[in-house]
Amino acid sequence: MLIRFSVQNSFSFKERVIFSMLPGKGTLKKEHKSMPVNGVSVLKTGIIFGANASGKSNLIKAIALGQRLIIRGTEVDRPIEYVPFKLDINSRKDDTRLEYEIQSKGKNYAYGFVFNSKRIEEEWLYEITKTNEKKIFERNAKSKKIFDIEPLLKLNKKPKEKQFLTFMAEATPNNQLFLHEFTTRKTKGNVSDIADLENVVAWFINSLRVVFPDDKYKEGIKSEITNNQKLQHIYKELLSYFDTGVDGICLKNVELEKLNIPQEVLKQIKNNLLNFKSDSIRTVLSTPDNTYFISRDNDDLKAQKFMTKHPINGSDSSELFDTANESDGTNRIIDYIPLIIDLLKGNNVFIIDEMERSLHPNLIYDLIDLFLGHCENVNSQLIVATHESSLLTQKLLRKDEIWFAVKDDKGESKLHSLEDYNVRFDKEIRKDYLLGRFKGIPRLGNRYDLKELFNK
Predict the structure, then answer these.
(1) Would you give the distance in Å from CA 277 to the centre of its chain?
(2) Given CB 3.0 to 4.6 Å as the disulfide criterion, which of 136, 270, 424, 439 pairs with 125?
(3) 33 and 42 in contact (C-beta within 8 Å)?
(4) Nearest Cα to 82, choosing from 53, 106, 125, 116?
(5) Domain residue spans of the chain
(6) Cα–Cα nearest to 156, from 104, 115, 195
(7) Are 371 and 344 in contact (CB under 8 A)?
C-alpha cells in the first residue's frame, strides 16, 4: 500500500509536494481504511481533481518515473531520465527528489532518491514505525564514504556475505540506483538476510500498477478465456452489469497470413515463437481495431481474435462482433475487467490517469463504488486522477480521499486536500467545487478579448 509520495523539481512540480494516503480525523466510512501495519493505516481510495494542465497527470508521471528507474534502470553511459521543472532558470539545473513511503510484507518503508541527468546524488531506505525509523542503507555521492550499508552487513555476518554486499554497493554505477543494482544481481545464496530490499523491490514490481489513458492493462489474460470458464463468466456478468449489450466473449481462429500485419513484423513473431520449445507461449498483438493472440501449434503458428458475443433476437445463437464495432465505452469496460479482478484480489496499488475516459459519469461512479463496496477485507488501493465532478460527493468518498491539483501563475503545480477545508460531512461539495471554492478548475480568460480577435 502507498502511504505517501513526495516529488520536488520534476515535471510541473518545483517545490516539494506531498500526496498522502494517511487518514485524517474523520470517523466515517471506516471500511475505507486498511488494517494497520505496525500501527499505520492508510486509505484505500484517493481521487485527484483539477483543471487541464493542473498537474494531475504529472503527479502520476513522477510516480511512474521512479518506478522505471528502479525496475528498468538506466543504460550504461546513458543519461538518467531527468525531467526538471523548466519554467525557472535555477530549477533546470537543480536535482529532482522522489520519495515513496510504502507498506510491504508487513512493514512500513521510506525509500527515496535525489538525482540529475548525470548521477544519483542521494538514495536511502528506512523501515519506519509510528515512533521511530531504522536505517537499512544510505547513499551520498558527496560523502567520502558514498555508501553506508552497515545495517545490511550486521544482518549478513559471514565474510563472504559482507564481501558480496560491499562489492555490490561499490560496483553500483553513478547513474544507477542501488535498488536497481540489487535486482540485477544473483543475491540469493550469496547473503543470508536481504528481506527489506526484497520487500521494497517486490512492491514496485508486483504491487504498483500505473495505468495511463492509452494503456491496456493485462491484456494477455484474454488469451485464457477458452480454457477458463470462471474467467468467461466474470467477463459476461460484468459486461452485462455495466449495460454494454455484450452477452459474452470468445476467441475466434483466424488465418495468420490474412491479418493486416506488416510482413517484417509477422516474420519476427514467427521466429520468436518457433524458437521456443513450449507451446504455451503467446504473443499479444494489439491493433487500433482488434486484439490477436498468436501462439505455437507444434511446428506451425495459429492466430486467434478476441471477439464479443451479442444475442440475436428470436434465436438462441449469438452474433460475433469485432471489438472495433463496439463503442469506446464498452472497450474501456473490457480493458478494466482484469484491473477490477486484480484490485479485489488485494495487495495491489492502482494509479490511473483519466479513468473516466469514454465512460458515462454513472459508470465511473459505479466502478469506484463497486470497489469501495467490496473492499472491507481487501488491502488494495485505487488512486485516480480525473475531471469527473460527479465523483465529488461525500456519499461516495471521505474528505481525506479527495485532492485538488492547482497550477499557479508561475506554472507550478500544488496539491491540497478537501481535509484542509472546514466542510460538514453532510455537505454536497460538487457545486462549491465548480464555483471555485476548492480551486482546481479552469481559469478562463476574458471573452471580450476573443470577440475582438474574431472580429479581426
Answers:
(1) 34
(2) 136
(3) yes
(4) 116
(5) 1-213+354-456, 219-329
(6) 195
(7) yes
Torsion of CA 389, 350, 287, 246, to 10 degrees: -70
**Amino acid in the structure at residue 32:** H
pLDDT tens, position by position, 311-346: 999 888 899 999 989 999 999 999 999 999 999 999
DSSP 3-state assignment of 65?
Answer: helix
The model's pLDDT over 200-242, given as tens digits with 9 standing for 90+, comes to 999 999 999 999 988 888 888 888 888 899 999 999 999 999 9
Task: Please give the share of the chain, as a percent, with pLDDT higher than 70.
Answer: 93
Q: Cα–Cα distance between 8 and 177 in angstroms, integer?
A: 18
**pLDDT value of residue 120:** 98
Question: Residue 310 has which C-alpha cell?
Answer: 451479442
321 forms beta bridges with: 308
Q: How far is the C-alpha of 441 from the C-alpha of 22, rounded, in Å?
A: 25
Owner of C-alpha cell 458515462: 360
Instruction: Specify the pLDDT at position 245.
Output: 92
Residue 450 has pLDDT above 70, yes or no: no
Q: How far is CA 145 from CA 135, 160, 237, 311, in A?
A: 16, 21, 59, 70
**In Å, how far from its chain's centre is CA 180?**
19
DSSP letter assigned to residue 74: -
Task: Quote the Cα angle for 313-315-321, to 5°.
Answer: 70
Q: How far apart are CA 180 and CA 200, in angstroms?
A: 11
Q: Does domain 1-213+354-456 have CATH number 3.40.50?
A: yes
In what helix (H) or strand (E) does residue 150 lie, and over which residues does it extend?
A: helix 150-155
Between helix 328-345 and helix 229-241 the angle, nearest 10°, is: 120
